[in-house]
Write a structure and sequence with these properties.
Number of strands: 21
Number of helices: 13
CATH topology of the largest domain: Dihydrodipicolinate Reductase, domain 2
CATH superfamily of the largest domain: Dihydrodipicolinate Reductase, domain 2
Shape: globular
Distance between the termini: 45 Å
Largest sheet: 9 strands, mixed
Number of domains: 3
Structural class: alpha/beta
CATH class of the largest domain: Alpha Beta
Strand order of the largest sheet: 6-7-8-5-4-9-10-12-11
Helix content: 25-40%
Radius of gyration: 23 Å
Amino acid sequence: MSASITEHLDSWNQREAQAEAMIPLIGRLYRENNVVTGIYGRQLVNQSAIDILKAHRFARQVDEQELPISETLPLVQTLVRLDLGSASVDLARLNNAYKASGSADLEAFLREELADVVGKKGQGSPEPTDVVLYGFGRIGRLLARIMVGHASSASGLRLRAVVVRKGKGDDLAKRASLLRRDSVHGPFAGSIRVDEENSAIIANGTYIQVIYAQQPEDVDYTAYGISNAVVVDNTGLWRDEEGMSKHLQSKGAARVLLTAPGKGAIKNIVYGVNHTDITDDDKLLCAASCTTNAITPVVKLMHDEYGIDHGHVETVHSYTNDQNLIDNFHKGERRGRSAALNMVLTETGAAKAVAKALPDLAGKLSGNAIRVPTPDVSMAVLNLELDREVEKDSLNRFLRRESLEGPLHSQVDYIDSAEVVSTDFVGSRAAGVVDGLATITNGKQAILYVWYDNEFGYSAQVVRVLEHMTASAPAKYPSAG
């Protein structure tokens, strides 16, 4: 074996060992101090050594070089010694700040940078907020997965119950099985048990009460020790103020968040764009649609930077449970035809819904949708007429920079690989991912292609809205950058 081959293997083994040494430290910070660690939005909690190394590798997208794990390991070791309070810590940004400071004393730097939480021993976590999932379909189960994964008190969201209509047969076991196994998103990361006697599912230690009811007002949550709960309605059956208010008739329910476009005066919230419009007085809110979440952050970036005169949004959307597997009656036009065999032209209100988050664009966007025979991941094609001319390269540089460092970096991702296809975006936590190689410009015209996981990416946005509604997100460090 040549020396160069040996060097590469030795280097890999050394970095893998450092990542393995980091895992229990990340776990201690998470469980004992309520500290969530990450690298440019890539969470490190409950990750394998390989995943941790991949996150360090990803840092080159921002810093143009891989983040050395030889630098982050001592950083994490020092964080453990500081006995921190609740916080979210970005190791890459913290490491960059340390090198920029010129300090030779890592602990002294960290004590100053994290002064607000040093020695607080897990304190500072928000009071837990009870969350109820009304409906347990595609989005409901993904929300459960995300919240169970965040079950440390670093997040104030506490999943307490799901409400469903009882089906025939072994309903509880079947519900648990659907949470445990998913044909698109893979197996549940952890352990799931069923408590038949008490009608509950225990997922990674999170006790989830399963409540059977026909109507929202039939439920008394206080009978299960649930109070002041946020009810997340995943059914889409009640989308106006009158219908959504039925949930508030339930004892123990305080607020309602709808995972579908709301009607009338209901605020449609796209996290990152207009979430600051939420007030404590808002009892009924909606998290808009998956497509609205995918396109609105990108549209905001484009409008703020270049101005949008008008445009059209064409959505290539995976089929959903609303469609028929094979041809059968359906109240909607064309949706009765087989979802697995056809492209189905249908309508979308997502383009018009953008204006509910960005009022300046009212009447400026039109839209249509094509349902296609894939189970998950969709694409939005934004054909925009701008207020000024733009070149493809400068536009892509702008979008890439914003996806990494801008205020919408959690919502907008960017990729420029010539080999990616839809399945590569399954599990993406971004609201939308700009495909830079597909960008087209012609004078004032810009055409953007935006991938989005219409299930998981949307669910991540819903959780962000929940965290903001309930002030459940931990403080982020470093505070600048």
